[in-house]
Hints:
- The protein has 537 residues and is α/β, with parallel strands linked by helices.
- It contains 22 helices and ten strands.
- β7 (226-230) and β8 (236-242) form a beta hairpin.
Amino acid sequence: MYRILLVDDEALIREAVSENVKWEQYGYELAGSCENGKEALEFIEENPVDVVFTDICMPYMDGMELSEKLSEDYPSVKIVILSGYDDFDYAKKAIRYGVKEYLLKPITADEMGDVLLALKTEMDKERKAEQKLSKLESAYRKGQKRLYSDTLLHLIRGSRADEETRRELKKVGLNLDFAVYRVAVAELDIYVCSSALDEERKKESALMAFVLHNISQEIVKRNKAGEVCQGKDHRTYMLLCSNRPVEFRQSVRHICNEIIAQMNQIMHLEVNIGLGSYETELENIYKSYEEAEEALEYHYIMGGNHVMEIETIREEKNQADVDKMLGELALHVKENDSGKIKEDFSVMEKTLRECCYDRRSAGVVLQRVVDMLDELCRASEMESGQRTAFKEEILEKVLNAGELKEAVDILGTYCVEVGGRLDNQKNVGGKKYAVMAMDYIEKNYGDCDLSLHSVCSYLNISASRFSTIFKQATGMTFMDVLIGLRMQKAKELLENTDMKNYEIAERVGFNDSHYFSIAFKKITGKTPTEYAKEMRK
């Protein structure tokens, strides 16, 4: 069914045409009707149509202007003008804008039907031609894609002679003249973990593998980093190449991690990627491929969602130990636990020795300790210039250390120092906030809207942090202090004035005298009236 839109500023004409033409009989559905060209364009933006029947004289935008806009922005839309004017100038403009018919009102239902049938015949031919062309293009692309994939796989796996491979590369338009190459093989975790799949699962997993290939191709192409193809084993093969060897390592890792992240986000699936070594000769790419395949075997140990490089498997294992070690050290520095800090550095020294780290590798770990200390100093609100000087001082001493033990001892001393700074900053900061809060409460206890939130807003501090440091500094909660102060002020007023209970309640921050009486008795064991009588005897 083709969709049609009526455009005429006269409602009676729109209704008459809508009701008198049997649209479905001619292969159409009436998508809608509009009063003018402006409204019609807005409608078409949201509701695509195939044919527009339009009047000429309309407010805001006439039929000629609408035809011009449609010919520019929606050239496939067929335009038919229904006009009460037999004007040659209008007809010339209509031809210029590609209008199919120029009909004079009034028009009969049969005349309308003839026009609709003629338009349908024309559109049917166009649609068939488009479909035929689309099929031809699809078949061509499919053949080219298969040739491209086969050629790239033969190159990656080294299964063809060099000269033959180069001829095939030229045939599919692949230019692979680069300084450095590296092969990556990506596989969905579903294939890794399952030795056998039922037929339904195979179809589903094949679609998932196709998505992996498409995402990988999009990311690699966007980064201009090489070529991608899919094998019959549903794995995605990437030949990554660059003329910038120095930046290549980082860009390869970034690409692989982005592929994994997008598969997680879009398909909620885990992906394993194996990376081979770097090669500088096209003929040696197969070596990188073999290493990438071998790297994938480590998924059993490392699990899904990993980029695996053979040369870094052991390093990554040791790195996990280092991460845990540094995490515990940071916690103990924050807690200012000098005993634990000493134990942490003892473990660190032992770990570095057992892992056979050389000076460079050990230096990387020690640098991370320095960076961690720098971040803690930032948290302690140490001034930027002072922090920079402090970091440079530590680095200089560590780098000049003659052996590992000396460097570790230096860092241990500085960790204890930073822990002390943090502890002192917590105490000083906590007392400062507590004093400011007590002063604010003293001045505003009579405000019935005084609350933890208003105090925190005044101090510009979160409620959770304020509650913690206030309790540490005073030994009481905010509400304990506020109620206690209000009760103390109420006692003074009961002892020294003749004010009524409701007046005292309002004075000390209660907007409900009944609740005030209950709170007062809970604190003193007496009602306000009983307390006043007792104090005035």
